[in-house]
Amino acid sequence: MFDNPSFVLKGILDTEIQQKPVPEIGANEILVEVKKTGICGTDVHFLVHGSVGDFIVEKPMVLDHESAGVVSKVGPGVTNVKVGDRVAMEPAATCRKCEACKEGRYQASICPDIICAATPPTDGTLTRYYRLPSDLAYPLPPSLSLEDGALMEPLSVAVHAVSKLGALRSNQSVAVFGCGPVGLLCMAVAKALGASRVIAVDIIPDRLEFAKTYAATDTFLPPSIDKGEPGVAFSTRNAQAMKEKLGIVEHGPRAIDLVLDASGAEVAIQTGIRIAKSGGTFVQVGIGNRDITIDMFAVLCKELVLKGSLRYGPGDYSLAIALVASGKVDVKFLISHRFPFTQASEAFEITRNGKSPDGKGVIKVMISGPDVDINEV
Amino acid sequence: MSDNPSFVLKGILDVEIQQKSIPEIDPNEVLVEVKKTGICGSDVHFLVHGRIGDFVVEKPMVLGHEAAGVVSKVGSRVTNVKVGDRVAMEPGATCRKCEACKEGRYQLCPDVIFAATPPTDGTLARYYRLPSDLAYPLLPNLSLEDGAMMEPLSVAVHAVSNLGALRSNQSVAVFGCGPVGLLCMAVAKALGASRVIAVDIVPSRLEFAKAYAATDIFLPPPMEKDESRVEFSMRNAQAMKEKLGIADRGPQAIDLVLDASGAEVSIQTGIRIVKSGGTYVQVGMGNPNVNIDMFVVISKELVLKGSFRYGPGDYPLAIALAASGKVDVKPLVSHRFPFTQAREAFETTRNGKSPDGKGVIKAIISGPDVDINEA
């Protein structure tokens, strides 16, 4: 194919499929024919608000970044993949030369010259062809479908949060706030790495039920917030209820070693800080409101380590793929909806609504590439 | 001496010197005749509010925990010190048996017995009983006042060296130029920091920091009428970056930020000026509920650590830094009081300055019958 239809965000709530030039590739790069792309909450946020935090969409941009495809062309010097290989795509090209890259922290937070798909101003992967440094294309083992491949991106986010930053060890206990795709994948990684307890928290009972069938050992549905109750008071009450119901303490074998927030909600963060053990780790992966009030006294007296987690870094994609290939993590379960490329706009609508017109709740929506059948795996 | 006069907190703002029984010691403990005790902000807070967070003063309690003295009696199994030794006193006896103690983080022991944290009596008495391994002999070039300063210096060592993991040539910013902030700067300098930036809203404290251990100082602009704290902090951080040539990455970035003020705007500013991928250590205690920009924490993958007291190795490093001359704690002793004027010592500390106008950094109270000039 010589054309390159692309799903472009022109402005707030304004999208269009447009032709864009097929990218030229250089040495050590490959051209991938994108087959499957999952929708991420940040893409929806760009669509609806035109920005995520300090990332602002200033000119039209192709959306999305969770993809897998087939290698269409390889540049000089490429040895790890060949034309026709099915690959998962790590959509963030870094400079290799700065201090961050050289000291093993190439992730988005730190390399100043990172080029991330669908982070303004860089075009994303909802297109026919995407250009990528060859080392960021990971061959998919035969047991993984292209849809599995597209899910390697959010799974790598979970691996980064749980395994890399959370440093979860076998038999430790984990609590995850937020049962969206990232939260669910965090639970799956925790389970795969041998967590003794994986506690899921969400305010929507259906999502908790799903988490229980997927990877959680325990679930907790917070009580409702009382009319006029300040957030801090609610969180204190919520944490107390959670500790009582689940037999959680601050020291010893019933303490929670690692807490992750994948919701971005202030009361979840506040509660999470309260239920983490003395000396525990809290990883913030969900992006919500910027200004969050936390109990610094609890952080101080418990010597908590609070870490921000952004995307993924060295080794995360490889571990994600290995966990799925070995059967330790099942990502297929999370695909709730599938759309052809021509219905990308509807796909975003449904993700935004949280459910399709038939009432089915959204977990992960998959959009196929141009001319790719939604059932082609 | 067969008596044990003790400075007791009876209730809010209600103190009295009372006789208390001399503690009995067990085979692994020592009895120390306390010679010098420094006043900490937490002691003042208990005096004024009767509580700190969940630690509530429910019955009368002896104050003070930053102390040094002379060993008066040793238990039968004690080998590391002998009667007559001058020692710095680490005032937190832990259980040794719980997970936290065994894995090397005894500061988190849930059963810690800590001087002047309710319900445990503190060191403002003639005698204090201590496990012998928490009594550190003072080298000849360290005075008893230096010995008392080892407690806050250990807090600084714990924050900068242990949790901050500061390495030579890294750059540090410290918010708050009280004794702990100043000591954090001194530790950073001693460990080879390339840059030690001090921040405070009181110009004279900044001047002192510059003379003491800081390479750079920054005085935040005044807050504007109707400006929210978040807006102020953004403006403050921007001003700080411009004035001091601070970047988010590379050699002009700040590797480690410590807050020793507990003030929300300092914490908010600190999070903005620390480098991408940097470490932020919270050692100052202020209002518990602090509003922070979580997007910055996420997008810069910050590591934010709470720092509580001190743990294994912190006291020995503090003493070594002081004994080798790398850290000088003497300039921080601003006021001295005899035991009989302990109440006035607390008044002065609470006021932030003595009647003659001299600003308080650290006020030291001598033990019963100890001359204030006895070093």
Distinct helical segment count of chain B: 10
Number of helices of chain A: 11
Could you tell me the strand content of chain A as a percent range?
25-35%
Largest sheet of chain B: 7 strands, mixed
Mean pLDDT of chain A: 95
Structural class of chain B: alpha/beta
Determine the oligomeric state from the structure. heterodimer
How does the overall form of chain A come out from the CA principal axes? globular
Radius of gyration of chain B: 21 Å
Distance linking N and C termini of chain B = 20 Å
Approximate shape of chain B: globular
How much of the sequence of chain B is in beta strands?
25-35%
Round the Cα radius of gyration of chain A to an integer and report it.
21 Å
Q: Please, what is the average pLDDT of chain B?
A: 96
Main interface: chain pair and counts: A-B, 46 and 43 residues
Structural class of chain A: alpha/beta
- Spans where pLDDT lies below 50 across 5 or more residues of chain A: none
Poorly predicted parts of chain B: none
What's the count of strands of chain B? 21
Total strands of chain A: the figure is: 21
Keywords:
A: 377 residues, alpha/beta, 7-stranded mixed sheet, 6-stranded parallel sheet, 21 strands, 28% helix, 27% strand, globular, B: 375 residues, 10 helices
Can you describe this structure?
The complex is a heterodimer of chains A (377) and B (375). Chain A has 377 residues and is an alpha/beta fold. Chain A is 28% helix and 27% strand. Chain A contains 11 helices and 21 strands. Chain A has helices at residues 41-49, 99-102, 146-150, 152-165, 181-192, 205-214, 231-246, 266-275, 296-301, 316-325, 344-353, and strands spanning 5-11, 14-19, 29-38, 51-52, 55-56, 61-62, 66-74, 86-89, 92-93, 115-116, 129-133, 137-139, 173-177, 197-201, 218-220, 256-261, 276-284, 291-295, 305-308, 335-339, 364-368. In chain A, the strands form 5 sheets. In chain A, strands 3, 7, 8, 11, 12, 20 and 21 form a 7-stranded mixed sheet that branches. In chain A, strand 1 (5-11) and strand 2 form a beta hairpin. The longest helix of chain A has 16 residues, at 231-246. Chain A is globular and about 60 Å long. The two termini of chain A are 20 Å apart. In chain A, 54% of the residues are buried. The mean pLDDT of chain A is 95. With 375 residues, chain B is an alpha/beta fold. Helix content of chain B is 29%, strand content 27%. Chain B has helices at residues 41-49, 99-102, 144-163, 179-190, 203-212, 229-244, 264-273, 294-299, 314-323, 342-351; strands at 5-11, 14-19, 29-38, 51-52, 55-56, 61-62, 66-74, 86-89, 92-93, 113-114, 127-131, 135-137, 171-175, 195-199, 216-218, 254-259, 274-282, 289-293, 303-306, 333-337, 362-366. In chain B, strands 3, 7, 8, 11, 12, 20 and 21 form a 7-stranded mixed sheet that branches. In chain B, helix 3 crosses helix 4. Chain B is globular, with a radius of gyration of 21 Å. The mean pLDDT of chain B is 96. Classes of the chains: A alpha/beta (377), B alpha/beta (375). Chain A binds chain B through residues 53-54, 98-100, 105, 107-110, 112, 165, 232, 250-252, 264, 269, 278-279, 284-285, 287-310, and chain B through 53, 98-100, 105, 107-108, 110, 163, 230, 248-250, 262, 267, 276-277, 282-283, 285-308.
